[in-house]
Amino acid sequence: MSNPLLEVRDLRVEFPTRRGTLTAVDGVSFAIAPGEVLGVVGESGAGKSLTGAAIIGLLEPPGRIAAGEIRLDGMRIDNLPHEAMRRIRGRRIGAIFQDPLTSLDPLYSIGRQLVETIRTHLDMGDAAARRRAIELLGEVGIPAAGQRIDQYPHQFSGGMRQRVVIALAIAAQPQLIIADEPTTALDVSIQAQIIALLKRLCRDHGTAVMLVTHDMGVIAETADRVAVMYAGRIAEIGPVAGVIRAPRHPYTIGLMGSIPSLVGEREHLLQIDGTMPRLNAIPTGCAFHPRCERVFDRCQRERPDLLDAGASRAACWLYASGSRKEGA
Amino acid sequence: MSPTGRPEGEHRSAQHEGGPASAGADVLLRVAHAGKTFDVSPPWLARTLGGQPRRLLHAVDDVSFDIRRGETLGLVGESGCGKSTVARLIVGLYRLSSGSIFYAGESVAALASGNAPRSLRRRLQMIFQDPYASLNPRWRVADIVAEPIRAHRLVVGGKAIRARVDALLSHVGLAAADGRKYPHQFSGGQRQRISIARALASEPEFLVCDEPTSALDVSVQAQVLNLMRDLQRELGLTYLFISHNLAVVHHVADRVGVMYLGRIVELADKKPLFATPRHPYTRMLLDAIPDLAMTGKARTPVAGEVPNPLTPPPGCTFHPRCPHANDRCRSEVPKLAPAPLAGMVACHAVEERRIPIVAERA
Description:
The complex is a heterodimer of chains A (328) and B (362). Chain A has 328 residues and is α/β, with parallel strands linked by helices. Chain A has helices at 48-55, 82-88, 100-103, 110-121, 126-139, 145-148, 158-170, 188-205, 216-222, 240-245, 250-257, 297-301; strands at residues 6-17, 20-32, 37-41, 64-72, 75-76, 93-96, 176-180, 208-213, 225-230, 233-239, 307-309, 312-314.
């Protein structure tokens, strides 16, 4: 990857509390190339949504970026003043959230919301912006866009609302879209439609996507690469096919095995005992070591960084050269 | 007892009609033509002054199925298809509008009116989706689990009750010491274990599980599903397992019913249902799941959405989305009938053999 569009380096997100500072995202680094879809997967509390929020500058106080840097097209965006960040958000980075009903203002027609977004970011008159809005609604697959543009969010179904949110996100043709659980609130048949739509739009416009989700199935279908997060850190990152077919990190292996499949018959699902640690009780060394079946003494003492592990990179001492290790 | 590999009566479900008298010895729960309508009319004043009509929502319409002792019946469908309403009808949280439900030959109608025999209430328990909402936050876990024991006087004496609660907690993988804590001190998965312990406290035979793992992360879901399967083995439980997640249903169920807009459109043993789905809606659902094994393959998204249940389309309610629909489908409601080879399907196209029987999937 020669010229990444988005580059995140050693990102740390902290929440100061009365009882000390909690580190929710700790030393996360990754890059997204233009037109690439990076999936970020993890269980609740892994820090995946916070990573996305930090990138678009929507961390809720008291949460703050405590260290690291975020670059968009080479320019640092993590330390920009509010106004400058506001201009980037929407124009160069679009956002899609889980619940389309909270992303839309119930008091304005969707046309008005689209026109407002378009005119905020692009130099366009009212009439032209409205024509563009109808075009966008058509592009995201809303039938009879010309009539529906004057309707209000409550007049749309959940799937149609999410299409409107996607239209808003791509209105100013951003280079990057951060999609946080965009299909989680939708039924499976609608989910398939929205994923197909996202994929088509990215292909047509060359938009890069950071797709945050807990659903490995969605990642498998959509992403080019995937980052698996655990307790605020990336446990494994690599090409989707590699991570899904041959996961390297013991956590990824457990995670993949715990997903019920439609193929084959299994008496028991693979089970990782215990739960993800709370932020105020992150174990020393590798945060996964108390739940890991292949733990050894180094895991308890030293925290692993991402190491080469075949097709992907895994933060696991099993892949350190010189430590005991088994053939792949 | 054994939840899988039941050689006897593989296709018995295909022949059920009629009342409880004809119930086979192994049928534990029989739902016969059950229906539930909700009155969603505007208020009286608006109706009288504004001339607005009464509106009825048919949440469940003519649903029939049997559950045999020791098996797991999975019920799948998208939101609003009526699967949770079926669960609530069975345990008596809703009153039936039409049809009947019999548990071991006894009508459960009395459950909803509150004067059911205690024994019936004890034998049927429910596990809900949201373990944050279904446990009383002001009660200690030990009291939550002990409540059914006290209510049904299953064990008498404080010490004996405490011993029983401890045993239940350790049975679901919690420590006896956890009984002194409050629900907020537990994670989602642990709370669902508490819900299960409470359900088991009354020594039931039958558990209605309404999306029991939908609020949980996958690794925690795996723990709870494994636990439920072990408990079924040990205690000989019978499950009605409701989920929107086909992969989860595939993992837990012996037989599967697929619901669409208040009706069962297909009911079959798990294997044929997933290998050779017959109803176009079942096929659509199966095509729509992102499957890890299919990495890279594009699935075919299906056009359309579930129609508004207040104004369902005439005839087969699936016809606006169905590629095989013809005039008959647009006017005549298909009945659930035995399909060629296996299972039961409510589809004119399948009955008329307009849809070819597909070869095994995957």
